[in-house]
Amino acid sequence: MSENNGAPGIRTGDVSGTVVIGNNNTVSILEGTPPDPVKRPSISQLPRSAADPLIGRERDVQALQDVVKKRQLVQVWGASGVGKSALLRHLACSMARGPEGTTNPDGSAYIEAGGRTADDIAQAIFDIAFDAPNFKPSWEVLKEHLKTLRLRIYLDDAALDDKELRRLFDMAERSTFVFTSQQRCAVDGVHAIQLKGLAASAAVELVAALLSRELRPDEVPIVGALCAKVAGNPLRLRRIALSASTDKGRLPGIAELPELLPALLNKLQPQERDLLCLLGSLSGAELAPRHLNDLLERTDAAALADGLVRHGLLLASETGYSCPPDVAECVLDMRRTEFPADRLCRTLTAWVEARDTTADDVAVHFQALDVAVLRAERSGHAQLGSALARAASPKLALSRQFDAWGSLLGVGWAAARSAGATEDEEFFLHEARTRRKALGRGAMTAALALEAGVLFRELTVLHAQSAAQPAAGAASTAALPHSVTSAHGAAHSAASTHAAAHTAAAPHSAAATVPGHTAVTHGATRPVVDLSSQAAQPHVAAHGAGTHSAAAPTPPRIDLSGAHSSVAHPTHAATTTASATSTGHSVTAAAGAAGAKGGMSALAVACTIGIAAVLGVGAIVNANDQPNPSPAAGASSVSTPDLSDDTVPDDDTVPDEATSPSVDPVCATVLPELSSQSATFNTDAARASTAIDSYNSAMNSYNSGATSTPPSDSMFLSETGSVVSDMEDVETTLREADAQAQDSAVSSDLNDMLAATQDIKSQYESFGGGQEGSEIDTTSETSDFNSALSSLQTDCGA
């Protein structure tokens, strides 16, 4: 063995290329040669057999098996709780590996894809199929290896957009993909099968099995009617059975369905409600039994959770439990509080730091870590959130799930900045740069992108979003007099309706007694001006709605170190509607932004100006355990990012001034000034969105009858006024720069940006005008601004 020169866990003589090592809880880079991945002779990663047999799905199973044998790309799609995950697990276990000569001779791989990006899913496939410990291949090298595979790959809850799915399929072009999601896929070549609810006969069988008795003749038609009312949804049928078991065997009537869930929760044991409150506070993220025991100070949390899963109140995956969004909304409304964020952070930090906690363990629960850090910052415990992210960072890097790692670095940096922890800020900056280098993108640092880190505060709408989602889809929910229509298609929430669970006949649902106020759609994306060097390309859209498709969306994957340069991502527009309480009219605002995850709003991290680099061959990831984090070794001394830190390539190959192309002198001042002003605009736009979300929550309470006084709209009107002021500053900067510009191309770029700025400002001003039906849709203006900025950067040689 060669000497490691003091770097624990690394033999410097037998590797080359990019090597990532751990040192005092930081991740650093060496140079070396990558290993030669070896395909495993037997590839078989299958889910555990389900505890309960599938009921009423015999035809679905047979039809799906027939299709999978003939088609290479197969999707099972349908509503939350309809049984897609259970069907996929059954299929994966029942369809044996094909022998040599069949379409999938290499074996099978089952992957829970909820919340993962295409990059992280591809890395997971690579890790299952190849023996290459701790190796992180570049995208190109990854594709070279995956295209040799002939696997049958099962992806549960692959909530990626069509472009990302196509990209993933192309990576492993000889493998068969069978995946589930809530929305039908439009990718060419995909055979989409919609999974619908159970038939009445199957519903009778399911309810009888849950009650552990045969149904009486008079009960059979009641179950049939209830089945029709809930569209045969197995999750809701389980709750109906639970209601009967807790009510002396009496089945609920159809009129009782709207209030069934709160009634069930009231009948649970206190420890069961505690468990639901804990998981309901995580926006759909899951926790393992060990976490539940530690957080609830119990030893039987898994048994409690299994009982709640059986009755449709929790969801179970291969690695833990999560809470359906409607249950989360109901239990948190009853408790009027969430599980303490400080306790959550301390417990998860202790778990992360435990020696028996592996990198893969941390990667499985990355969504819970993100939520915990975000909640800590929101609740005044930002330092605890920063400490959790810092403790988890090295192990998440070792998992090779680099997009999950980037997301954690982003929320960790935001928490550190909120806490005023300069040392932690520098740590996250250092790790973000290290991640980019490991991906072969060392010439584009993340420093300036962090200037827009306050955008992470937008994620405080997570809980509100998880509470609003079930209301929009519940059949029993009464619609408001006015509805909110999404401007950006089925990928996001369609219409916002009354969140309270009242029947149509209930007094509060009558239009005559509820004023015509409309709440803001929680799933709306936020306006973001993107000062990226790749501004002409749409930004990363983070997808996934939690570990299970029925779970609430988890935190958007905001990656402060940037997306892979080889990826093109979609951009969406969204609609946000607010009503002025004095008149009852609605104001609609639609703003261009990065794509959202499963209907969740997601903000692009703005202000990255750099030089794109070719992806490298990959990275070997290794780290040593250090119980006490210390200052980042070699971390940047920059606590407040500046433009100069991002315009210098990491390899120090700075062009000689004498040979550099001539650029307009105005570029030296206008780009930094626009970067600063853009960050301010994004900050205030996020605050305005948060204010609208708060107004929306209060309006929902008013509409539901929970409060008697309509909320004031003064806060969000004030915040939108700040955005107008920001646009005026940008306008002034552009006018002054244009007056000094010497290059006609630069002048043209500045004028194009000015026109877009004026349009954005004008539309934001409509919020304060009290004009009924006024609409804000900055989608095209934001696109024009970014396009002109990209041209300006080119003309300025940036």
Number of strands: 19
- Strand line-up in the sheet with most strands: 4-6-9-10-5-11
Computed over alpha carbons, the radius of gyration is 27 Å
Estimate percent helicity.
Answer: 40-55%
With helices defined by DSSP (H or I, 4 residues minimum), what is the helix count? 25
Assembly status: single chain
Could you explain the architecture of this structure?
It is a single chain. With 798 residues, the protein is α/β, with parallel strands linked by helices. Helices cover 43% and strands 11% of the residues. It has a six-stranded parallel sheet, sandwiched between helices. Helix 3 packs across helix 4 (139-146), helix 6 crosses helix 8 and helix 14 packs parallel to helix 17. The two termini are 46 Å apart. The relative contact order is 0.11. The model is unreliable at 1-19, 442-616, 623-661 and 770-774 (pLDDT under 50).
